[in-house]
Amino acid sequence: MPELPEVETTRQGLAPHLCGARLSKLLIRERRLRWPVEAQLPRVLRGQRLDSIGRRGKYLIFEFQDAAVLIHLGMSGSLRLVESNVPLRRHDHLLFDFDNGRQMRFHDPRRFGSVVLTRGQPLEHPLLVSLGPEPLGNHFAGEHLYTRSRGRTLAVKAFLMDAHTVAGVGNIYANEALYLAAIHPARAAGRISLQRYQRLADGIRQVLSAAVRQGGTTLRDFVNGAGEPGYFAQHLNVYGRATQPCHHCHGTIKLRNIGQRASYYCPQCQH
DNA sequence: ACTGGCTCCTGAGGGC
DNA sequence: TGCCCTCAGGAGCCAG
Predict the structure, then answer these.
(1) I need a surface site. Which of A93, A144, A160, A270 has the fewest CB within 10 A?
(2) Among chain A residues 47-86, those with CB within 7 Å of any atom of strand C
């Protein structure tokens, strides 16, 4: 499942090979993604130079001269650079050919991902404009979490995973950050002190930046732009470790559903 | 304004 | 061994 570190890993892998190149051809093989891929996409982008690849939360922003493309990887999506003579795989839905000979393939078995065209300021697009702060940016701190959570009764883990609270913190890293901050995932968001939220913000930064350094977490099939896996899985403290011993207290890691999502935690360490 | 539930989809994995 | 069934999971959307 691509989360922020996997998306950032993808961005860093693609940018050096594609920025500055012109899109020579775009083939849409399957337009039924989260939203139907706009039929005009190839016509609008053809011949345009790719100026940059940015990221906002889990959205990648491909900025061309006169338009931008927002790509979300959903939970099974990936973008890979290949030689154009590499055989197509099932679920290779979009093929982007660039004039430097590179081809980028959007692959997504479950089709929860999206490829959206925007002609205006990408950051003002409805999908991006109301996102919370970037967790690895300069404006993210415990004060923000504390202020936003006053009066809220939902579980802190669901609060964290809401992209309007903070952008890009998904299930794996929400579990890990709450463990680092010793906060129980089911605790009501509005009943956590400023001091504990500061510790949580630190935990989020810590776990996300470590995962970016490791090239992301490969659980099942995540690969970067070159088709390589990430190595953060071996640093996970709780995610996927139900019934195994806590690294801190040696108690047993528990699994339970919170907000319809698998939540892993140490009942002894987290309150 | 919040909150929880539904929805899209496929492949992995468990049960028999 | 192989088939069938269940279900996870991001996040937009909607109803209460």
Answers:
(1) A144
(2) 57-58, 72, 74-76
